[in-house]
Specification:
The protein is mainly alpha-helical. Helices cover 78% and strands 0% of the residues. The chain is flat and about 90 Å long.
Length: 340
């Protein structure tokens, strides 16, 4: 128990005070109440451990022969700069993870919003009050949206303002669809108009938007297939073929290096040739970069945003690397007789 408290204390010191409200808000949007200071404290110790393994095998052997003052100064800089850089990287990684999680939560609620509002409109037409309609429309199949609307209903039933509660829910997530829908509903409640009519219009617009997105995804299926074929098949095969051709060229140049062939304007030299292994390393990096950006392009074409395509990155990356290795093994057998 004391160890956990130590982690929590270090976690509070690990996070700048100005960033605590921002981080707390981001955790709240991601469905986590409060800042997990214990986790940040563990990450603080993790940065020290990583710094230790960086310092002694590499930096210490270099600065060991320095004069004592320069040695102490260099050691101080290393143990300050490296943990700070690691801390920044960790904080950015956590924020990025939370941002993706918040985005996915918002998308999940957008898909269920039309069905939920349909139940609310039916309850209103049946004579229920708006507050009771919100509560009665909650169903387990709505998942996260049911949880959020349950919180809104509880706030209202315990004396909270209805419009304020709905506005807070809309502002919680970076979703234009949720925000516009809630703004239309709250503005109609304030004006005292027929809430069922505006709600039916919102439901109709949400359904039209969902159908339009499905039609756009279907119409762009050809582009998605084309890009996927380039990333998974064509690019790895071309890189594998280039590697085999490079090995053939290097083999021929090594065989004829230093020979002065009569009646030729040039002489062949074996120096300054490209190392095939370096090209192979470059191929892996290039295929990885192509896979990442291709998944983002497909996400923009298919979903209209980049964040939805992050889940495709591991699939594209794994498939393209496997295709490259398979193509490399197959072509090595074809070019075996040419490589010297």
């Amino acid at each position: 128990m004391k160890d956990i408290r130590i982690f929590s204390v270090f976690g509070k010191a690990f996070i700048p005070k100005k960033l605590i409200p921002v981080i707390a808000q981001q955790f709240y949007r991601a469905g986590i109440n409060g800042v997990p200071y214990t986790l940040f404290g563990m990450l603080f110790y993790l940065t020290l451990i990583i710094t230790y393994f960086i310092y002694f095998p590499t930096v210490y052997t270099t600065i060991n022969n320095y004069v004592p003052i320069l040695f102490l100064f260099s050691t101080f800089l290393v143990w300050v700069i490296i943990p700070l850089l690691l801390s920044v990287v960790i904080m950015l990684g956590i924020y990025f993870y939370l941002d993706i999680k918040v985005f996915n939560r918002a998308k999940n609620m957008e898909e269920k919003l039309a069905d939920y509002l349909t139940f609310v409109s039916t309850n209103l037409k049946g004579g229920m009050s708006f507050e009771n309609s919100l509560w009665s429309a909650i169903r387990p199949e709505f998942g996260l949206l049911a949880e959020e609307m349950g919180l809104v209903s509880k706030k209202v039933m315990t004396g909270g303002d209805l419009i304020e509660s709905l506005s807070d829910f809309a502002k919680k997530y970076p979703s234009p669809i949720l925000r516009r829908s809630m703004n239309l509903i709250t503005s109609e409640i304030e004006s005292g108009g027929k809430i069922t009519e505006i709600m039916d219009r919102v439901i109709e617009d949400l359904k039209k938007t969902r159908l339009l997105k499905q039609e756009m995804a279907a119409s762009t299926l050809t582009y998605v297939i084309f890009i996927s074929a380039i990333v998974i098949v064509i690019a790895p095969v071309l890189f594998a073929l280039s590697f085999q051709l490079l090995q053939v060229m290097v083999g021929f140049m090594g065989r004829f290096a230093g020979l002065n062939i009569p009646n030729m304007a040039i002489s062949i030299s074996g120096e300054n040739t490209i190392d095939p292994q370096n090209f192979k390393t470059f191929s892996f990096f290039a295929i990885g970069i192509i896979s990442v950006f291709a998944s983002m392009i497909i996400s923009i074409i298919n979903k209209g945003d980049i964040k939805s395509g992050l889940k495709y990155i591991p699939v594209f990356l794994t498939a393209s690397i496997i295709a490259y290795i398979v193509a490399m093994n197959m072509l090595s057998g074809v070019f075996a007789g040419l490589v010297i």
